[in-house]
Amino acid sequence: MEFIVEMLNIRKEFPGVVANDDISLQVKKGEIHALLGENGAGKSTLMSILFGLYRPDSGVIKIRGQEVKMTDPNVANSLGIGMVHQHFQLIHNFTVTENIVLGLRGEKADIAKATKRVKELSEQYGLYIEPQAKIEDISVGMQQRVEIMKMLYRDAELLIFDEPTAVLTPQEIQDLINIMKNLVREGKSLILITHKLKEIKAIADRCTIIRRGKKIATVKVSETSEQEMADMMVGRTVSFKVEKKQAQPGDVILDIENLSVKNQKVFGLKNFSLKVRAGEIVGLAGVEGNGQAELVEAISGLVRPESGSIRLNGKDITALPVRDRINAGLAHIPEDRQKHGLVMDFSIEDNLILKKYYERPYSQRGILNREAISGHARKVIEMFDVRAGQGQQSPAYTLSGGNQQKAVVGREIDSNPDLLIAVQPTRGLDVGAIEYIHKRLVEQRDNGKAVLLVSLELDEIMNLSDRIAVICHGELVDVVDGDKTNENEIGLMMTGIKKEKTEDAS
Questions:
Q1: Residues 219-228: contacts with CB under 8 Å, at least 24 apart
Q2: Which of 81, 291, 305, 488 has the most CB atoms within 10 Å of its CB?
Q3: Residue whose C-alpha is closest to residue 448's, from 268, 280, 258, 207
Q4: Confidence band of 358 (pLDDT split at 50, 70, 90)
Q5: What is the DSSP letter of 399?
Q6: How many helices (H) and strands (E) does the chain have?
């Protein structure tokens, strides 16, 4: 049989939005088929239908040529379909094996036999998982391998990966690509939901592009450029290069001196000093877990430093509470939009006034002014193209990850801060949304604001930053001009090797 899966004329409607509008998708046995689309285009909805999490309003699903009804994920599992979710479904104080057999009965749930089987599968597919390790003790990349193992243990023939690289480091992404190639070599078929064009070019055979719930095309990846795929996905020509004029740095807005911050009992940040001026973007480059989180938490007021000082516009804010820092001109786009950026059960309009609900016109004498709150939300939603089925009344959890991110970015920029700390501002966003947010960050700079950009995406750091500060093991390695360095040099500094100051250094 040529196609392992056929989804024909699938339609799915939610209140206020058609998520899938007559979409057809056909996946060949033994191929890696990418599903590409903007945030909120309907990719995850389509795959949730295939996995039995949603039922389509109309359309047909065929597995190996036979029409099937996907009533729930157990049916999908029994037909050999597994899904590796973007947000992992793991119990942290259970071991790897306990998580893998969770929900199974009989022989498959026997821990001793399961441990042996997990070891065998781990070696067969190059996963290298320790079956007895606790989830809380292993890295994010390793946790994702456990999710993959759950599917393999259940004999999945088709594996659906939903935005699998959103939370991985560059090295873990490369490891995942190798694992995916091993899976295909062993006879599996893969569907990859993503909007990262580089990864599609690196691994996919074919790609189906959807835009605003409609299928645009299915293309052979080897015969289609990244630019062509991006243009089809967004519906216009997308620029990958950030257009920006030379920075005109002004006064020092953020002045960090000899800052040391503890992470539990050890120093995550040691004797760190950095200045960020008005009218410049300073990028902080480093491998994840090298002190970035401690620095951002200390600046934003979430942790108290052990020593050192933080000054904003010349005022010492080292010991100030969070609200006073916000009032002093600080805005913060947090790394995790769901944990620290939004209250997921609140509506978008309520999330957009979280930092100023106590101010006029949003409230008076403790009573919220709904009209003013709704008007403000409509303005931000329109400015930042936040797509939500029920507009500003939509609960945050109903939005796609990318639209949640746009809401957070919109709220922070709308507060007109003097200092904007942007941590992973485009994590999980498609090329169109990335281009837009990059423009807004440059706009902040050009309006005389100071921007501290913390990102694990080296491309983003190189593209946006006027100066780049490199951090390793909690210490500042060096600060270099963005236009006088390259990825290789920054990559070396991220390992702790300082740039040589020589006469003939290029």
A1: 221/34, 226/197, 226/198, 226/200, 226/201
A2: 81
A3: 280
A4: confident
A5: S
A6: 16, 22
Q: Strands 58-63, 66-68: parallel, antiparallel or unpaired by DSSP?
A: antiparallel
Q: Which residues of 466-492 are buried (b: 16+ CB within 10 A; e: fewer)?
A: bbbbbbbbbebbbbbebeebeeebbee
Tokens 């790394």: give the residue: 335
Question: Contact 176/164 with Cβ under 8 angstroms?
Answer: yes
Token couple for 223: 């015969």
208, 34 contact by CB (below 8 A): yes
Q: Which residue has the tokens 């960020």?
A: 276
Cα four-point dihedral sign 224, 228, 229, 230: positive
d(CA 312, CA 329): 8
Q: Please report, as a single letter, which amino acid is at residue 468.
A: I
Longest dimension (CA), the chain: 71
Per-residue tokens: 423 = 């941590």
What single-letter amino acid sits at 413? I
Q: What is the pLDDT of residues 254-283, one digit of tens each?
A: 999 999 998 878 888 999 999 999 999 999
Q: Is 468 in contact with 482 (CB distance < 8 Å)?
A: yes
Please compute the mean of the pLDDT values over residues 313-321 and round it to a whole number: 93
Q: Nearest 10 degrees: CA dihedral of 175, 283, 492, 485?
A: 120
Which DSSP string corresponds to 82-111?
EEE-SS----TTSBHHHHHHTT--GGGG-H
- Indicate the length of the chain as a whole number: 506
Left, alpha or beta for 409 (phi > 0: left; psi -120 to 50: alpha)? alpha
Q: CA–CA separation, 258 vs 254, rounded Å? A: 13
Q: Long-range contacts: 63-69, Cβ < 8 Å, 24+?
A: 63/4, 63/5, 64/1, 64/3, 64/4, 65/1, 65/3, 65/6
CB contact at 8 A, 153 and 121: yes
Torsion sign (Cα): 387, 390, 392, 395? negative
Pairing of strands 252-263, 214-220: unpaired
Q: How far apart are CA 356 and CA 370, in angstroms?
A: 14
Global pTM reads: 0.71
Phi, psi of 331 (to 5 degrees): -130, 150
Write out pLDDT tens, residues 29-84.
999 999 998 877 888 889 999 999 899 999 999 999 899 999 988 899 899 998 88
Structure tokens at 311: 């000054």
- SS3 assignment, position 164: coil
Other beta carbons within 10 Å of 249: 18
Query: How far is Cα 307 from Cα 271, in angstroms, rounded to an integer?
Result: 8
Q: How far is CA 383 from CA 65, 350, 411, 490, 492, in A?
A: 46, 17, 11, 34, 39
C-alpha to C-alpha distance for 331 and 420, rounded to whole angstroms = 5
